[in-house]
C-alpha cells in the first residue's frame, strides 16, 4: 500500500496549527490587565483628571488593573465614563499586550450662568455643573434660568464661532423683557442685542459701526450701542 505523504503532512500541519491556536488562546485568557492608560482629546485634562477616570474604571468592585482581561466588559466601562458630568464622550479599548486605554473627550463650556446654583452651558446647549478642578474663562451670564438655556444658546454659539466677538465678550445679561446685552472686555460701552434673532445682521452692522468708530477715534465716547433697530446701529454717548 502506497503511503500518501502529502495528506499526512497536511494533517500534521493542521494539528500543529490548532495546537498553537489553542495554546495562544489559553495564554491570552490567563493574561491580566497590566496597565491603564488615560488620554484626553483636545488639550489638557481641565475638568476631570486622570485619577478621576481611574476611579471610574471599576469592575467586579475593584480596579481593573490586575484583573483577567477576558472577563472585562469594555462597554460597561465606557458607559461609566460617559455618565460622568464632565465627560462628553469616552472610548475604552484593550491592546493585545494587556493594556486598557481610555480616550476621554471633556465637555466644553460656552458660558457660566450666575444663579443660586451656578452652572455652565456647554457647546451642545446643555447644562453642566461647575468643576472643583478648574474654573473656565467664559462669559458670565446673569438673568437667565435653566428654563431659558435653549433661548440663549443660539447667541452663545454665535459668539463662540466669531473669532472677534469670542475674545471681546465677557458678560451677557438678560432683562425682564427678554432683551440681551453684552459687556466687553476692554471697551466701556454696553452692546444691546435685544431679542435673540437676526444675529448675523445685527453683528454685521455692529462690526461696520465699530470699524468706522476706530477710524474716527470715537469708541470711548459711547456708553451703549443699540442693535435692536433693523438696518441701523444707535450709539448713545456718555
From TrEMBL:
GO terms for biological process: cell septum assembly. It comes from the Bacteria. Keywords: Cell cycle, Cell division, Cell inner membrane, Cell membrane, Membrane, Transmembrane, Transmembrane helix. Residues 111-228 form the Cell division protein FtsQ/DivIB C-terminal domain. The chain crosses the membrane at residues 6-24. This is Putative cell division protein. It comes from Leeuwenhoekiella blandensis (strain CECT 7118 / CCUG 51940 / KCTC 22103 / MED217) (Flavobacterium sp. (strain MED217)).
Amino acid at each position: 500500500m502506497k503511503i500518501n505523504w502529502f495528506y499526512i503532512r497536511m494533517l500534521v500541519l493542521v494539528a500543529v496549527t490548532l495546537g498553537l491556536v489553542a495554546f495562544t488562546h489559553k495564554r491570552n485568557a490567563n493574561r491580566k490587565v497590566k496597565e491603564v492608560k488615560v488620554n484626553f482629546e483636545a488639550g489638557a485634562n481641565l475638568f476631570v483628571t486622570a485619577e478621576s477616570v481611574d476611579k471610574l474604571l471599576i469592575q467586579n468592585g475593584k480596579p481593573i488593573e490586575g484583573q483577567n482581561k477576558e472577563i472585562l466588559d469594555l462597554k460597561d466601562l465606557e458607559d461609566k465614563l460617559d455618565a460622568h458630568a464632565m465627560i462628553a464622550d469616552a472610548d475604552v479599548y484593550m491592546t493585545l499586550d494587556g493594556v486598557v486605554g481610555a480616550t476621554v473627550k471633556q465637555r466644553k463650556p460656552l458660558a457660566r450662568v450666575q444663579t443660586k446654583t451656578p452652572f455652565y452651558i456647554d457647546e451642545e446647549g446643555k447644562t453642566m455643573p461647575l468643576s472643583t478642578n478648574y474654573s473656565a474663562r467664559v462669559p458670565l451670564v446673569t438673568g437667565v434660568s435653566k428654563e431659558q438655556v435653549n433661548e440663549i444658546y443660539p447667541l452663545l454659539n454665535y459668539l463662540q464661532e466669531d473669532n472677534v466677538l469670542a475674545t471681546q465678550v465677557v458678560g451677557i445679561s438678560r432683562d425682564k423683557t427678554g432683551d440681551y446685552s453684552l459687556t466687553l472686555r476692554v471697551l466701556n460701552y454696553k452692546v444691546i442685542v435685544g431679542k435673540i434673532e437676526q444675529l448675523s445682521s445685527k453683528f454685521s452692522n455692529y462690526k461696520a459701526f465699530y470699524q468706522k468708530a476706530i477710524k474716527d477715534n470715537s469708541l470711548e465716547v459711547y456708553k451703549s450701542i443699540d442693535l435692536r433697530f433693523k438696518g441701523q446701529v444707535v450709539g448713545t454717548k456718555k
